[in-house]
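Reply to dn_fold:

You asked what the input looked like. This is it:
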Amino acid sequence: MPWIDNLFKIMTEQKASDLHMTSEHVPMIRASGDMIALPGAPKLNKDQLQQILFEIAPERNRKQWEECSDTDFAYALDGIGRFRCNYFRDRFGIGAVFRRIPDKILSAEQLGLPPGVMRLCDFKKGLVLVTGPTGSGKSTTLAAMVDHINSTRSEHIITIEDPVEFVHPAKKCLVNQREVHNHTKSFAAALRAVLREDPDIVLVGEMRDLETTRIAIETAETGHLVFGTLHTSTAASTVDRIINQFPADEQEQIRLMLAGSLRGVVAQTLLKKKGGGRCAALEILFMTSGIGALIREGKTFQIPSAMQTGAKYGMQLLNDALETRIKAGEVEPMDAWDKSMDKEDFAKRLKLLGVDIDALLETKSKEEKAAKAAEAAAANPQPAAPAQPQAAKPPPGSNVLGANGPSWKRPGA
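and this is what came back:
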């Protein structure tokens, strides 16, 4: 059994999302959003760590790391689950990060997804985007959506991923999962070929370049339901990101195509839950005639206002989701504040909930200053002061203040 499998088992027992390994450092895990050193784990030098990591890496990925200093692949451990593996090189030597992928796909109900999110699975064609920062649970949400389609519709699903994360067994659908570099050269190459493979639903693991984005939009326009991901934090910024990828002379045409093909955007972030664990806060946009007009006219800055008035359609802003989590007692107001993208609006919401955000910010600032001072003191310990020589004790019966007591006069006065 590979040595690192022991760490994967501990990681799973601790319900950690990630395992971090760096040369000359103790392995660390991310649990409930916090980085924690694995107790009892040894510090590994670069040669030891390379031997451990290469033990599970396919030959192609070893060569790729040696040539490019980066590589990605998936690793499966029976009874534990799958892991998305990224190897890299830094100033210490080889390093790696492993993301745990549960072997069981959670349902929308188990994830606590709003009902509106699953409505996006009912479309027959169009573009659906799930966005958020790295580690925000995009893959988990997409897996739940694809699994819902797999359980309720009799169609053909093709996924293009780097690497394949959640494994979807055939239920009512036929599911073909293609991995970039192993089964196809690139996202763009796989997307170009997908129209000849008779798909109904296409999942693009990451729309990371202009060509992939262009083909994804064209695929959605030709009568297919396309799911994709981006690293954006809000629905409005997602639309801007797509449009701004294209040269200026193409942007007007892309706005027209996007207004016609986009069906919805789910922008999510993860928050620490009280008592441990994490939960998602989702911003949800559904395409309406009003939203489409704003995209066509280049008025994407008005999308948040349109979403506020579109609550009856199931739309919600990120601040709506954060406020709901606070009211439910699931998260601390300060953690929700850190995730909010519109601080001015969220401050007003907190005030209505009776939360004094100014006091919380002041307390946080003091705690951060104290932590920095303690860290600086630990990094630069002050040398102990030399012992002062003690004055000789007067002989018994003598008066050190003189015969007439103390004199406060200046000498020579």
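Residues 357-379 form the longest helix (23 residues).
Hope that clears it up.
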